[in-house]
């Protein structure tokens, strides 16, 4: 009798299905909690960077959706299509109806005066606000022409050209005089870019290179002899229209 009772007591100590399920549930819950903590920590450490990467990719794909427009504008102006894509990305992220607080409009964020001047050079009617915001092909043509004109006047240094595109030739001239020339002004901005224009120029060139590597926008341009293939730019000696 004592042996039977001992064997029964030993058998009763084994967990039943309900107990086993309870233990398994506790372990699963612990794993979920630990996983959630790990994901939360990962998100705290890497969330902002991942968010920026996603937003950047969305913007680049939006710009690449305008590839036919970019190639057409590049063919007409002789400006590298990837440089145009870089400008479009930094200016508007490829949003056709973008408007800045200062009143710049469209894909290339053109001010009315600059758009009108480019239209005259292309022998086009002066564009209206509605034209600049709802005609992406026209906005890209005018932006490319404006950039071509700046390269002819302010090039061949593309950083200088892009600072002029962003801030205006008048401001660039004043900054250069205050600093004692372009090179000294650029060195000052590398230490501390107070205007944001130098950072703008560097960003455009970075995205120009990124678009070139992706290979979606890049295409053969006519009149390659008038450009510097290594830098993707119109030569400074190109005659202004």
Helix content: 55-70%
Secondary-structure-based class equals mainly alpha
The CATH architecture of the domain at 65-219 can be given as Orthogonal Bundle
Please outline the major beta sheet: 2 strands, antiparallel
Do you know the CATH topology of the domain at 65-219?
Lysozyme
Number of strands: 2
CATH class of the domain at 65-219: Mainly Alpha
* Number of helical segments with 4 or more residues: 11
Percent of residues in beta strands? under 5%
Stretches where pLDDT is under 50 for at least 5 consecutive residues are: 220-240
* Radius of gyration, taken over Cα atoms and rounded to an integer in Å: 30 Å
Shape: elongated
Q: What strand line-up does the widest sheet have? A: 1-2
Mean pLDDT: 83
- H/E element sequence: HHHHHHHHHHHEE
Distance from N terminus to C terminus (CA atoms, Å) equals 114 Å
Short description:
With 241 residues, the protein is mainly alpha-helical.
Secondary-structure map with pairings?
Elements: H1 2-12, H2 17-64, H3 67-77, H4 81-92, H5 112-121, H6 129-134, H7 136-154, H8 158-167, H9 169-179, H10 182-191, H11 197-214, E1 227-228, E2 233-234
Antiparallel strand pairs: 1-2
Structure overview:
- This protein is an all-alpha fold.
- It has a domain at 65-219: Lysozyme.
- The protein is built from eleven helices and two strands, in the order H-H-H-H-H-H-H-H-H-H-H-E-E.
- The chain has helices at residues 2-12, 17-64, 67-77, 81-92, 112-121, 129-134, 136-154, 158-167, 169-179, 182-191, 197-214, and strands at residues 227-228, 233-234.
- It has a two-stranded antiparallel ribbon.
- Helix 3 runs parallel beside helix 7 and helix 4 (81-92) crosses helix 11 (197-214).
- 32% of the residues are buried.
- The model is unreliable at 220-240 (pLDDT under 50).
């Amino acid at each position: 009798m004592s042996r039977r009772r001992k064997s029964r007591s030993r058998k009763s100590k084994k967990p039943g299905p309900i107990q086993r399920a309870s233990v398994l549930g506790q372990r699963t819950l612990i794993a979920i909690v630990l996983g959630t903590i790990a994901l939360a920590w990962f998100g705290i450490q890497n969330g902002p960077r991942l968010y920026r990467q996603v937003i950047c990719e969305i913007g680049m794909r939006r710009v690449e959706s305008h590839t036919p427009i970019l190639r057409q504008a590049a063919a007409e102006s002789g400006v590298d299509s990837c440089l145009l894509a870089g400008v479009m990305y930094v200016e508007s992220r490829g949003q056709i109806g973008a408007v800045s607080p200062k009143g710049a409009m469209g894909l290339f964020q053109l001010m009315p005066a600059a758009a009108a001047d480019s239209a005259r050079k292309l022998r086009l009617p002066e564009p209206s606000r509605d034209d600049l915001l709802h005609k992406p092909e026209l906005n890209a043509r005018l932006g490319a022409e404006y950039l071509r004109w700046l390269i002819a006047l302010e090039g061949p240094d593309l950083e200088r050209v892009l600072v002029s595109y962003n801030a205006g030739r008048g401001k660039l001239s004043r900054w250069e005089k205050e600093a004692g020339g372009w090179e000294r002004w650029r060195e000052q901005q590398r230490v501390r870019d107070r205007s944001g224009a130098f950072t703008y120029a560097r960003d455009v060139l970075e995205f120009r290179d990124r678009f070139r590597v992706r290979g979606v926008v890049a295409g053969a341009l006519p009149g390659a002899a008038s450009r510097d293939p290594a830098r993707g730019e119109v030569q400074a000696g190109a005659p202004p229209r």
